[in-house]
Amino acid sequence: MKKMIYTIILLVLMVGMLVACGNEEEAASETPGTSGEENTDNNSEENTANNAENNTDSNEKNANESEASGSEPQTIEFWHGMGGGLGETLDELVEQYNASQDDVEIVAEFQGSYEELLTKFRSVGGTTDAPALVQVFEVGTKYMIESGYTTPVQEWIDKDGYDVSQLEENILSYYTVDGDLHSMPFNSSTPALFYNKDAFEEAGLDPENPPRTFSEIEEAAELLTVSEGGETSQYGFSMLGHGWFFEQMISTQGQDFVNEANGRDGNATEAEFGGEEGLKVFEWINSMHKAGSYEYYGQNWDDIRAAFQAGQVAMYMDSSAGTKDTIANAPFDVGVAFVPHADDIDPQGVIIGGASIWMANGITEEEQAAAWEFMKHLQTAEVQADWHVNTGYFAINPAAYDEAIVTEEHEEFPELRVPIEQLQETVPSSATQGALIAVFPEARQQVVSAFEAMYQGMSPEEALNQAIEATNHAIETYNRTATEE
Amino acid sequence: MSSSSVTVVEERILQYGRKEKLSWWGKTKNFRTAMLYLFPSILLFSIFLFYPMLRTVYLSFFLTDAQGVASLFVGFENFAYILQSSVFRKSMVSTLLFVLYTVPSSVIIALFLALLANEKLRGIGFFRTILSSTMGMSVAASAVIWLFLFHPTVGILNSFLNIIGISSIPWLLDPQWALISIAITTVWMNTGFAFLVILGGLQNIDQHLYENAEIDGAKYRYQLRRITLPMLSPTLFFIITITFINSFQSFGQVDILTQGGPAEATNLIVYAIYRDAFINYQFGTASAQALILFILVFGLTILQFKFGEKRVHYQ
């Protein structure tokens, strides 16, 4: 009996840990949520008064430096989610900026994946612990606007008289809500179709004339599929288990993802991708899957890339940000084309993905000004050219495409031009602007689940319905709490 | 423990003698002393366990807004929604299957290895270290190793299967296989700890029992059945309970290997809770699921004690 009590206590402890994990987050984010704004205002006044002191407290390294030099650069914290090579490139950009002037020191901190980054920001948002600048992925836009933790960059654009027209319109449109630009786009990409040119030649297809419509892709996929004795060594087509690609094929048909003009005229109340537009996509994938010319490689980006590189799949969709790596790593010639679109329609274009930089409102005016200077610096053609060449993301400032390093790069990899053309050909509309919903991560997950259910034999109609119902439920639940306040 | 209970009894007798003289303050003396001793643990438990638990119960009756603040009281709606939701049912089925796959196999494999490693041979220390080494691996590191082994294109498991003429298995891509793949990973991770505990249990068994049995002419298998297993039963019971609870709470390997996919086949309950709380920011439904999990594990553990403990032989 004694042992039993011990074990039950142990059990309670273990389950308790789990519960505590869930709760900690809640408790932490509760404080800023309820009284955050008031605190913030008080603090910023205090901060203005004790600006020097505050900086010394907030950054020890900085404090040491200031003791040595006597003058104190302002420290601006910048949270980002760029790991690996992207992170190195970003760190270099930040270092260059820090070296170029003495007034401001940007401290770039990698905070994990976009999701982790946003979770961390949620718990400190609106407090003095919040960073001045934070990078948030595109689907977090609605959350950030409603959080009350940020200052729309439009305020600084107006104050400073900054000319936004120099930036790429089709990228700005995503982050523009009610005519105001809320955050500064930073790393933007779109999907594109990547294909194996060598495999095209072997299958008797023209590698310089890639398929564009659903039925063209389906025919090509059939021809590209190589199988021997029931074993398929090369599949024609594949799509990553990620909602982003589905959204593109909805938008290119000119269809909004949700109602209220994609959530841009007001709070969306219903998903709208369940009509014939969505069904076309599901049926198209299903028919290829049934025919054996389509293979699913899961939700992991690296897995589908590895399959393409290994010649197991001849066509797939990937982010334009990976163009250069894909071409450089492939042992065969890679072609890049526009994303597929449904037959008999005029393709409307693509929605951008990636992330933008937000300015927190829990900081002083001086800090915001310094943060704004850094934002402007990031948008200069020079920096954008550097960024574009090193990462494959778009240049937010199209003038960057005329910089020498970019033109050289484009000569070497002409495929890099394709996603840029695709973006510039995009017809501005609410559909290609992208949906603005707070429950986007959940909606994406539901779409992926629906596709996966279809691969297991569910009919396209049923799978699509499942995604619609689950997304509607998520939107409804969200709206019930959102309107409460 | 026994000496203190003796003093308690003595005190009771003394108290009985002068019962009418004792005030309320005097009568509660034992209780107050006990509370004093318990205070540190009660305090820690309250802060880290009872408070979060009560918050979880509280949150499970609310919908939370985008900031995660409980903003709309909905009564039992979260529970009703979960119990009706096919996703949750599927998640429960996967979790139970997963427990079924992992617990018996982990314990049996660990027991087998421990019996082997319990033999006194030259260099056995090396094998004991190797066999318990997975205990030192973090969940994340082990999961990443298996991620590469299972890789659909460059994974070594499939390459090996191809060499011996078997076609590739879609380890993490097929819903049926994915749960098994996660189970294999988990069994591999569990074995180290279970092995170590069982080996410890084996070493604790009195050698005289074996000597006596040998004199009586008992064979190895008879000794195993009549001495080793009964004497090992408290250890086995402990390790079964721990593995059981661990299996219910598996998270890291799911997060790294499949993220709950494909087609939600590996959306184990703890991962479902995580997804609701930190991806969908629905702390209400996440808390409700956490409570259901708690009640379930609690109930199953009590049952396990009720029926399992009878077979346990304490020395």
Question: What would the keywords be for this entry?
Answer:
heterodimer, A: 485 residues, alpha+beta, D-Maltodextrin-Binding Protein, domain 2, 2 domains, 6-stranded mixed sheet, 5-stranded mixed sheet, 22 helices, 54% helix, globular, B: 315 residues, mainly alpha, MetI-like fold, two-stranded antiparallel sheet, 14 helices, 2 strands
How would you describe this structure to a colleague?
The complex is a heterodimer of chains A (485) and B (315). Chain A has helices at 2-49, 51-58, 60-69, 84-100, 114-124, 141-147, 153-160, 169-175, 197-202, 214-224, 243-251, 259-263, 276-291, 301-309, 323-329, 365-378, 381-391, 404-412, 417-424, 430-433, 440-455, 460-482; strands at 74-80, 104-110, 133-137, 150-151, 176-177, 180-181, 184-189, 191-196, 226-228, 231-238, 313-319, 334-337, 353-360. Chain A is of the alpha+beta class and 485 residues long. Chain A folds into 2 domains: 72-188 and 351-402, 3-Layer(aba) Sandwich (D-Maltodextrin-Binding Protein, domain 2), CATH 3.40.190.10; 191-350 and 430-482, 3-Layer(aba) Sandwich (D-Maltodextrin-Binding Protein, domain 2). Chain B is mainly alpha-helical and 315 residues long. Chain B has 2 domains: 2-59, no CATH class; 79-311, MetI-like fold (Orthogonal Bundle). Chain B has a two-stranded antiparallel ribbon with strand order 1-2. In chain B, helix 5 packs parallel to helix 9 (175-204), helix 5 (86-117) packs antiparallel against helix 11 (220-248) and helix 9 packs across helix 11 (220-248). The chains are: A alpha+beta (485), B mainly alpha (315).
